[in-house]
Design a protein that fits this description.
Layout: E1 2-8, E2 37-48, E3 51-57, H1 61-76, E4 85-86, E5 95-99, E6 111-112, H2 125-132, E7 139-143, H3 152-155, H4 161-179, E8 183-186, E9 206-216, E10 219-227, H5 248-251, E11 255-258, H6 277-291
Helix pairs in contact: 1-4
Length: about 290
C-alpha cells in the first residue's frame, strides 16, 4: 500500500490500461481557474491472479467548496437526506450538458460524479454519452439541482421554491464563474423555463435570440444575448452578481440547445427525433469557429 501527499495547482492523471480500473473523486475542475488545490492521492494495488485493482482518490479544495455550498442550502431547508451529487474535473469554456437533478438510485448516499467521460453507462447515461461521443473530452456536466430524487414533481412542489432558488443560484454561479461554456445542452427541455424562457418566471433570467442554426430535429438552438428586465414580484436570481456587462455567457455569445429528454418512463422517442453525435459535433465545430473570430 502506497500513500502520497501532494500540494499543487494542477493535478493530472493518466487512465489505467489493461485490467486496471480507476476511480476518481473530486479532481480539480478547471486549469484556468488557478484554484489552489490540496490533493490526497491514495493508490492501492492488489493482484488477484490476472486481475489488477487500482483505486485513485483525489480531493480538490474547489470541488469540496462547491459541495459545501449546496449542502448548506439543503440543510437549511431540511430537505430529505438522500445524498448530493457534485461533478468534478469539468472542462472550461467548452460544452456543458445540464440535467435537472440526479435520480435516487439504489444507494442513498453522498457521492461525486467523476469526469463526464468516465461516468458509467446506465439507462440514463447511455444515450447521453452516445450523443456526446464525438466531443467527449470537451463536455462538462452539471445538474441544476444536485439533490437526489427519483421524482421530479416532488422537487417542483411549491414548498421547495426557496430551496430550488438557492440551489440554482449556486449552479448559475458555477456556470458563469468557472465552467463558462460556449455551448449548453439542456437535457430536459421541460425545465427550460429556469433559464428565463417564460416571461412570468425569470429564475436565471437570460434573454435569448434566434440563431442561424434554427432547430435540430425539432430542438431549438438559441443564443444568450443578455438578461431580461426584472419586474415587481418577478426578480431574477443573482441579480446583484451578474449583468450584461459581467456575464461570461453573454460575452461569449453562448448558445443553448434545449433538448428533450432522451428517455422517460413513459415513452421512447422515435429515432428521427433524436440528435446524432455527428450533428452535435458539427454544431459545436460551427459555434467554435464563430466565437473564435
Amino acid at each position: 500500500m502506497v500513500y502520497t501527499f501532494c500540494v499543487g495547482f494542477d493535478i493530472a492523471y493518466s487512465r489505467m490500461v489493461g485490467n486496471a480500473r480507476a476511480s476518481v473523486d473530486g479532481i480539480s475542475r478547471c486549469a484556468d481557474s488557478h484554484a489552489f488545490s490540496i490533493c490526497f492521492f491514495s493508490g492501492i494495488l492488489m493482484a488477484f491472479g490476472n486481475q489488477l485493482f487500482c483505486e485513485v482518490i483525489m480531493y480538490s479544495s474547489t470541488d469540496v467548496l462547491l459541495r459545501e455550498k449546496y449542502n448548506k442550502v439543503v440543510e437549511k431547508h431540511k430537505y430529505p437526506i438522500r445524498g448530493l451529487f457534485v461533478p468534478s474535473d469539468n472542462p472550461c469554456s467548452k460544452v456543458l450538458f445540464v440535467g435537472y437533478n440526479p435520480s435516487l438510485g439504489k444507494t442513498p448516499q453522498n457521492n461525486d460524479y467523476p469526469k463526464f467521460s468516465d461516468i458509467c453507462e446506465n439507462e440514463f447515461w447511455k444515450p447521453v454519452k452516445e450523443l456526446a461521443k464525438d466531443i467527449i473530452d470537451d463536455v462538462a456536466f452539471l445538474d441544476m439541482f444536485p439533490v437526489r430524487s427519483s421524482n421530479q414533481h416532488e422537487l417542483e412542489s411549491e414548498k421547495y421554491n426557496s430551496l430550488r432558488s438557492e440551489l440554482l443560484e449556486i449552479t448559475q454561479q458555477e456556470i458563469e464563474e468557472h465552467i463558462k461554456p460556449k455551448l449548453i445542452v439542456m437535457l430536459n427541455r421541460s425545465a427550460s423555463y429556469y433559464w428565463g424562457i417564460k416571461k412570468n418566471a425569470l429564475w436565471m433570467g437570460y434573454d435569448f435570440q434566434n440563431t442561424s442554426f434554427g432547430d435540430i430535429r425539432g430542438n431549438k438552438v438559441l443564443r444568450i444575448r443578455g438578461f431580461k428586465e426584472s419586474s415587481f414580484g418577478n426578480t431574477r436570481i443573482n441579480i446583484d452578481k451578474f449583468s450584461d456587462e459581467n456575464s461570461s455567457l453573454v460575452s461569449s455569445k453562448t448558445h443553448v440547445l434545449f433538448y428533450r429528454q432522451l428517455k422517460t418512463n413513459r415513452k421512447q422517442y422515435s429515432a428521427e427525433s433524436i440528435i446524432t453525435s455527428k450533428e452535435l459535433y458539427y454544431l459545436w465545430a460551427d459555434i467554435k469557429s464563430m466565437t473564435n473570430k
